[in-house]
Amino acid sequence: MKKILLCLFILLSATIQAQKIKVACVGNSVTYGHGIEDREKNSYPTQLQRMLGERYEVVNFGKSGATLLRRGHCPYNEQEEYKAALDFAADRVVIHLGLNDTDPRDWPNYRDDFTKDYLALIDAFRQANPKCKIWICRLTPISHRHTRFKSGTRDWYWQIQQNIEDIATLANTGLIDLQAGLYDRPDLLPDALHPTAEGAGIIARTVCQALTGDYGGLQMPMTYSDNMVLQREKPLRIAGTANAGEKVTVDIAGQKGEAVTAPDGKWSVTLPPMKAGGPYTLSISAASGKLDYTNVLIGEVWLCSGQSNMAFQVSSAVDSQRKAFLEFAARKPEIRLFDMKPRWATSAVEWDISTLDSLNRLQYYRDTEWKECDEETANRFSAVAFAFGQMLSDSLQVPVGLILNAIGGSPTEAWIDRGTLEFEFPDILYDWKQNDFIQGWARERAALNIRKSANKQQRHPYEPCYLYESGIRPLEKFPIRGVIWYQGESNAHNMEAHERLFHLLTKNWRENWAEELPFYYVQLSSIDRPSWPWFRDSQRRMLRSIPNSGMAVSSDHGDSLDVHPRHKREIGERLAHWALNKTYGHDCLPSGPLYRSVKFKDGAAYITFDYGKGMHSSDGGELRTFEIAGHDGLFVPAEAQIIDGKTVKIWNRQIARPRFVRYGWQPFTRANLVNEAGLPASTFRSEASPVSWFRLPDLPGTEKSPSSGVSAPFTGISGGQLLVAGGCNFPNKPAAEGGTKEYYSDIYALDITTRSPARWRRIGKLPLPLAYGASVTTPEGLVWIGGNNNEEVSGQVFSISWNTERQMPDISELPALPVPMDNLAAAYADGCLYVAGGNKQAEYANSLFCLQFASPTGKQWIRLPDFPGPARIQPVLAAQKSPDGTRLYLAGGYQPASDYRGAIVSTDLLSYHIETKRWKNEGFLPVSEDGSPYTATGGCIVSSGDSSLLLAGGVNYSRFSDALDRPLRTKQAASAGNFALRDSLLNETRNYLSQPAEWYKFNSSLLLYNTFTRRWTCLGNYEEPARAGAGIAQHGNTVILIGGELKPGIRTSEVNAFEIFPELYQTAK
């Protein structure tokens, strides 16, 4: 009997042994266990065996150095481990290959083979056991400390990761993510590649979950608890984990959703947007368990983050504010608080070994849950965040949830995802405790805290990425409305680095939540730290480059000695102003005055502000802390005067030609400009403008009438005299009232060799009244070409040079144009005078003519190749050097409508090579401020320096095109019997000349084109160049704009000039 029982036992054991599930762990040195102490016991396959238990047989088929690529330097398919793995005929195959393929010998050469080779490997295991299940793995991390990280490994690693994901879909295998569990544990990768035994345990647990589908049953992120607030009026995503394949049901307030858990244990349900309300119970159920969260509200949820001034508690606020906060909290408002406090403050102490181990495991924050608002919970909550929440609660009358995770002393880089820094700012990751990108104080404090650690990769809250990994990622994308942020003190030592980091942070967080969340931040306050004015201004400037953002000014509540001012209510409420205005659409000012622009005129600076309505001084006194500087950048105090609702005029008589302004530029400032809401203006410094405008004496009137300006005059500079001749206007009655255009022949001179030109002098007359010709400066003097008047089109060409002895111009005639022309453009280059476009004997011209000054047979006009495309009336033309020689550049102009075709207003730039005699298209002009195409029609152009063109003024494309096409459209409407449209168009025609000047939108931008880089740069928008038909002249570094139309039929007598500074050319490169 005993023998029978023994036989049965042996037979049963053999059967059990035969039924074991065989698992093959295929891979490289990470699978093999390279570098792990006691590898046979601690490699990931061995640990996996212990986790799976006796029903499984796990075998390690890892080969150090192996590549997936068959033409790689160590192909896995040629190794003994590969043959043994096939012979094993596993039931489950886990493949982790690809790390070694990042070698420069492999991926750059054979990347095209990767998919094919991986599919062949998978097929080989399926042939060995047709019933086997296969999982391929996303790669374990390669740390930035890897020697080849920046030289290729980083980029190739992520390319391979993407390939692996695609292959899993192609081959219908499972996909195990081995990267996620170790990516935020660089302390477990001592050599940047191979995990420790603890890291191998994380791999084993990840593989075990994938093989068994056991993820520990239904679980929710830490942000789910009783008393929580869920975001209203947005699709509500509820997400968690459960065992693979489990159906999960979510139920709240009559809304119900279901999902099936994915193979990676994750599930999510998205419920329709919900209105504010509650309390409700959120029920989540699955076969593995049920979770009920009670007293749940639907309302507005905001994340409140940053460093110590955001963490600063209500209990430490000034007494009056603390008492008011607590009185409000005692009324039990519908505000819920999720207060993530750190387990250990970063005080000046050495942390013990247990603390250091917890830090490495990212266990920095205490366990927390949502709490109702009362005096106790409010007292230890952030004062800034609480003031923000209180104002939202009062204004919106809906529940408000505030999540607080601010950490005192934390630098910006600690809050950014590792992947972002690896690609966008990798240098900040290296040897961070000795890295000058990171503030010295933060590094010193961290070094003290972790002094007892022997781990070279010891973690600390101030380390780059740490607070993202321990404080942002665990939120698991919990639905929020937006973010408020108060941080920067620990980055104020390097504003340039912070600008990069802050842009990365906002971009990173928005990518995490997959939406462009509102991001409202606090500008640093004021304290006696020298770098802070620059840093505050940097924060202001980032408002323009970070979309959907707002900045609360706090400099008026600074403390000269304390980095933690105790007045916090105002700061939180200023953040709330931004949210109420931009996020919730309330009619309130979101900010104090924010610098918009400055214009320099007549020795003063005129500063305009956004949100400047009702500006005044906060204390009723004179405006303080405005400063002004000239070209040298040496600032002096300025007098300041508010001259309208949104402009401040400042001046100092020591600065004749100001170029820079600044305000509040003291580390601890007493600046006092506020708007009608009492909100303070931000510190600012105007950017270095490449141009500085000033006014010359207005054009004089005629003998018969005072000056009302001219359009389309002849202009130029000769012998230090600015000469203006001819032009036209409606002197007696505006064109809109039926006035008659008058043409002039007077020539005027203004001596611009003196610092302050005195007055214009009438010095002669043209042979006949003319306007709409062209002006060119040549080595032999000025040349004035063509034009028209009420009676004729002229073909005359005049040469004008200033006679110093006579103090009069010498005027002589050059060969006449081949045909009379007007509204043409001209330029001079290499001994030749060129004219292009315009009207040619009542025909629209595509012609290009050249007058050769140095021709052996005498000066004569030659016809050159026509420019391509439509004709161009009122174009602009200039000559400039280019990479392949001197070129003519032609822009703007229009071809009128015909009986069958609409007008064509040109928006491109053509160039003509003088030697090859060929035209080419340089591309389109930049888009105008209003989004319409830019046309230089009716504008001005000059060559500047040795590679630049300056373009100013001209008509607005949309307004001008509509006006040109209106007669044709009217005719077409009448022909089609659409009399309503016809009458509407006729009415538009009647009213066209009666609109205010701003309606016509003449180009106000000053554009610079670099002929070598072919790049456009906008040098600013100003009212001075917003003219059509103005004259232009250049004298050294000074460009002068003369007269022109403010609107059709209305001229100006203004003569405006600007200086070009050397930086202008650097700007365009």
Describe the structure in brief.
With 1069 residues, this protein is α+β, with helices and mostly antiparallel strands. The protein has 24 helices and 60 strands.
Helix and strand layout, with pairings?
Elements: H1 2-18, E1 21-27, H2 29-32, H3 39-42, H4 44-52, E2 56-62, H5 80-88, E3 92-96, H6 107-110, H7 114-128, E4 133-138, H8 149-171, E5 174-177, H9 180-183, H10 197-212, E6 229-231, E7 236-241, E8 247-252, E9 255-260, E10 266-271, E11 277-286, E12 289-306, H11 308-311, H12 319-330, E13 335-339, H13 353-360, E14 371-372, H14 375-379, H15 383-396, E15 400-404, H16 418-424, H17 440-449, H18 466-472, E16 482-486, H19 495-513, E17 519-522, H20 532-545, E18 549-552, H21 569-583, E19 594-601, E20 604-610, E21 616-617, E22 626-629, E23 636-637, E24 639-644, E25 647-651, E26 660-663, E27 673-674, E28 684-685, E29 691-696, E30 714-718, E31 721-725, E32 728-729, E33 742-743, E34 746-751, E35 761-765, E36 774-778, E37 781-785, E38 797-803, E39 808-814, E40 821-822, E41 825-829, E42 832-836, E43 839-840, E44 843-844, E45 848-852, E46 860-864, E47 873-882, E48 885-895, E49 904-905, E50 908-913, E51 918-924, E52 940-944, E53 948-952, H22 957-975, H23 979-991, E54 1005-1010, E55 1015-1021, E56 1031-1035, E57 1038-1042, ...
Parallel strand pairs: 1-2, 1-3, 3-4, 4-5, 6-12, 12-15, 12-16, 13-15, 16-17, 17-18
Antiparallel strand pairs: 7-10, 8-9, 8-11, 11-12, 13-14, 19-20, 20-25, 21-27, 22-23, 22-26, 24-25, 26-28, 29-60, 30-31, 31-34, 32-33, 34-35, 36-37, 37-38, 38-39, 40-43, 41-42, 42-45, 43-44, 45-46, 47-48, 48-49, 48-50, 50-51, 52-53, 53-54, 54-55, 56-57, 57-60, 58-59
